[in-house]
Amino acid sequence: MARKDEKLEQLGRMWLFSACSKRDLQMIGRASDEVAVGAGKALTDEGRPGHEFYLILEGEATVRRKGRKVATLGDGQYFGELSLLDRGPRTATVTADTDMRLLVLGQREFNGLLDEVPGLAHKLLRTMAERLRDSDAKAIH
Q: Which listed residue, of 22, 72, 88, 136, carries a Cα 20 to 30 Å from 46's Cα?
């Protein structure tokens, strides 16, 4: 099991949760499940609806788009965060290359947090706006 502080630190480094307080991160951590998966397990399927976010505590996974490998993810990296915000189709297939330990936050649990702590939604919106501004500025140059 990952140390509780380690999980919270990793959550706090994510762009989506970067504006969250320690208390917010603790609530997100409590709403999440730590899950072990074996090598070869498909974690997401490109084009299918997503309902959860994954934070890699240990292990490696391959990201594929249209069958082509586009990235390898490891400890402290994450994927599926946009599925917390919408139920849009997954943009990639992610498969475990090794045995993995993951922190998984489902959309239902995330929505429950937003209902319980309305200030959290404001922090997330501010963080998303900053990210959009950065992307927009990069696109202009």
A: 136
User: Which residues of the chain fall below pLDDT 50?
Assistant: none
81-105 burial code (b ≥16 CB/10 A, e <16): bebbeeeeebbbbbbbbeebbbbbb
The CATH superfamily of 33-107 is: Jelly Rolls (2.60.120.10)
Sheet arrangement for strand 78-79:
33-37, 100-106, 52-58, 78-79
Domain ranges of the chain: 33-107
